[in-house]
Structures are given as structure tokens and as C-alpha cells.
């Protein structure tokens, strides 16, 4: 997720830019400012990784603002004036977008930003509301996931050490999008397994390394709808 802050002295420009950002996947506008001095007084305390700065502003230009924050935040410039382009890129910014801003051009700028901003990769961790509050879980610690028996909207994550954490109100579809596809697979309508937790498998059943009752290992039945994708994942 790119978390951005907007700085532009024109309120209409801010509204329009926020509207565009809302239409772009994995982009969140955390806050918007129309005063550079207020922006600078608050930016260090805002959880964001990208700033969208207008260049032409009274009192202080976006270029001057960028010189102050460029060490800690990535920057996209917006301006109606092309003569600032060279000076803007001297500051090593992500991109320089001319006004009037078009959605397609803004998407291009965000694509560049995704390669540069410090975003935890979804293949490393997931973050969600759980039974112990907002929780960050490293995916390499996850052994097995199943639909909660108490509430089917929740999902039980069993970690490699046997700890169970309940993800609140989360669909398998959304969860699979958060997990690295090469490391996890859905086995049936109610279960997901980490490939590292698989001991042996057949066309109908997976025997895992996860301890079950009576010192047996957990066995999972492969749903008919998931057989082909699992076989492809296993290279069969």
C-alpha cells in the first residue's frame, strides 16, 4: 500500500487529486494540506511513504519543501508549468506530472513509486485485526489456516510453534491475495496449507507436519475444485 500525503495550495486541485487516488488500487491518501508550513510541521509525525507536492505555491514552492523532506519521503511533483522539470529531477524525485492531471499518467507515477518506496512486501508479512488486536504476522511462521468453527467469517491461523491466532472477518479470497502464492495453497473450501508444512500428498489427501491429536499428523482432504491448481503448484 502506498500511503501518500498531498500538498497543494488550491483546494479544488486537492479534491480532484484525492478523487483520482481513490480510483487507483493500493493507494491511500492519508492527509492533504494547502499550506506548506503546516505540512512541514506535521509531516514527520504522519505515517506515509510518498508526498505529492504542487510546485507553484505562495510563500514556499514545492521545490523548497522537497529539499527539506527528500531524505525521508519519496516525492511526486505536480505543476502546470513545464519549465520546472529539470530542477525537479535534480532533486531525484519519483516523477513529475503535468497539470491537468490524467488518471493514466498518475497511475504511471505510482507504478514508479512502488518500486522505490519502503513498503513491506506482501510475501513477508500480513497485517490484520485479530483476537489480540491489530497484528502483524510473518508469513514464514504460518503453517496452516482454516475457517473458524465459531464464526465462519473468521480464519484460524496455526503458526509453526502451535500458536493459534484468529483473523477477524476475512475471506479466503482476500487472504490469498495477501499471502505469497508460491508458498501457500487452498486445499478445500475451508483450509489453506503452507507448502512447507506438507509431508506427503496424493490426489485426494495431504499429510502435513502439523501435530494433531494422539501424536498423529494433521490430514487434509483435497477438494475436487482445487485438485488441478494444486497439481500445477506441485509441478505435476
Give structural notes:
The model is unreliable at 119-123 (pLDDT under 50). Helices cover 26% and strands 34% of the residues. The strands form 4 sheets. The chain has a 5-stranded parallel sheet, with helices on both faces. Strands 10-9-8-12-11 form a 5-stranded antiparallel sheet. The chain folds into 2 domains: 2-116, Rossmann fold, CATH 3.40.50.2300; 125-233, OB fold (Dihydrolipoamide Acetyltransferase, E2P). It has 236 residues and is an alpha/beta fold. Helix 1 links the parallel strand 1 (2-7) and strand 2. The protein starts with a strand and ends with a helix. It has helices at 11-22, 36-42, 62-69, 85-90, 103-116, 172-178, 227-233, and strands spanning 2-7, 27-33, 50-54, 74-79, 95-98, 125-130, 133-138, 142-147, 155-159, 164-167, 184-188, 191-194, 198-201, 205-211, 217-221. It contains 7 helices and 15 strands.
Count, helices? 7
Shape category: elongated
Low-confidence stretches: 119-123
Order of helices and strands: EHEHEHEHEHEEEEEHEEEEEH
Oligomer: single chain
Got a strand count? 15
CATH topology-level fold name of the largest domain: Rossmann fold
Largest sheet: 5 strands, parallel
**Strand arrangement in the largest pleated sheet:** 2-1-3-4-5
Helix content: 25-40%
Amino acid at each position: 500500500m502506498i500511503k501518500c500525503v498531498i500538498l497543494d495550495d488550491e483546494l479544488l486541485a486537492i479534491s480532484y487529486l484525492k478523487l483520482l487516488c481513490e480510483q487507483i488500487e493500493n493507494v491511500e491518501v492519508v492527509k492533504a494540506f494547502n499550506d506548506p508550513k503546516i505540512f512541514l510541521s506535521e509531516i514527520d509525525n504522519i505515517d506515509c511513504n510518498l508526498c505529492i507536492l504542487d510546485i507553484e505555491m505562495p510563500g514556499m514552492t514545492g521545490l523548497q519543501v522537497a529539499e527539506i523532506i527528500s531524505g525521508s519521503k519519496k516525492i511526486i511533483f505536480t505543476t502546470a508549468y513545464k519549465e520546472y522539470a529539470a530542477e525537479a529531477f535534480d532533486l531525484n524525485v519519483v516523477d513529475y506530472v503535468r497539470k491537468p492531471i490524467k488518471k493514466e499518467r498518475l497511475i504511471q507515477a505510482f507504478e514508479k513509486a512502488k518500486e522505490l518506496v519502503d513498503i513491506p512486501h506482501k510475501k513477508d508479512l500480513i497485517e490484520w485485526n485479530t483476537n489480540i488486536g491489530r497484528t502483524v504476522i510473518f508469513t514464514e511462521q504460518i503453517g496452516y489456516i482454516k475457517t473458524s468453527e465459531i464464526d465462519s467469517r473468521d480464519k484460524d491461523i496455526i503458526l509453526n510453534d502451535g500458536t493459534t491466532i484468529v483473523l477477524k472477518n476475512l475471506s479466503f479470497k482476500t487472504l490469498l491475495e495477501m499471502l505469497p502464492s508460491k508458498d501457500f495453497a487452498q486445499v478445500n473450501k475451508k483450509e489453506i496449507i503452507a507448502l512447507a508444512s506438507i509431508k506427503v500428498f496424493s490426489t485426494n489427501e495431504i499429510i502435513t507436519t502439523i501435530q494433531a491429536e494422539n501424536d498423529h499428523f494433521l490430514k487434509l482432504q483435497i477438494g475436487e475444485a482445487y485438485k488441478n491448481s494444486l497439481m500445477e503448484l506441485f509441478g505435476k
